Amino acid sequence: MSVVWGIAVDCRDAGRLAAFWREALGYVDAPVPEGFASREEWLVRWEVPPEEWNDSAYLVDPEGAGPSLSFLKVPEPKVVKNRLHIDIKAGGRDQPQDVRWPRVTETVQRLLRAGASVVEEYSVGGVPDHVTMADPEGNEFCVV
To answer: How far apart are CA 18 and CA 1, in angstroms?
Structure first.
């Protein structure tokens, strides 16, 4: 039996990071919790102080296939390389290189415009393979 799971990302600016990953993955804002008319109503119910209302953000796959993403504000900055990262599978490893690599580079360009940066481009046997990027807060991910 599988379990429902999600990814939680510690960050400095939950709204900014959620906006980037919404664009990167085609995700949408999580729906308002059941039984509440708005997220604000839910926050009031759980007595979250108004000054903390922007300390988190939640995204979901609109098709319900991928894991949910939670962005949670923390006081400390990111200091070292992540041990777990997201692969954006834009190219299709089963596709010929002349089809796959343009898909990868197109996605890289789109994510650069959204606020990411390139960390490194990798080749295997002299053939471009994948690009490691960083989101606006420096969390690494790959475009393959």
So the answer is: 30
Written as one letter, the residue type at 123 is S
Architecture of domain 6-73 in this structure? 2-Layer Sandwich (3.30)
Q: CA-CA distance, 14 to 8, in Å (whole number)?
A: 11
Residue 97 has pLDDT above 90, yes or no: yes
**Coil, strand or helix: which one is 141?**
strand
How far apart (Å, rounded) are the C-alpha atoms in residues 23 and 88?
12
Q: Give Dmax over CA atoms of the chain in angstroms.
A: 57
Please name the residue that has the structure tokens 């990868």.
104
Q: For 52, which DSSP code?
A: G
Reported as a pLDDT band with limits 50, 70 and 90, residue 81 is confident
Residues 14 and 72: beta-carbon distance below 8 Å: yes
Residue 4 tokens, joined: 């429902």
Give yes or no for a contact between 107 and 90, defined as CB atoms under 8 angstroms apart.
yes
The confidence score (pLDDT) of residue 61 equals: 97
Q: What is the pTM of this model?
A: 0.89
The string of pLDDT tens digits covering residues 17-35 is: 999 999 999 999 999 999 9
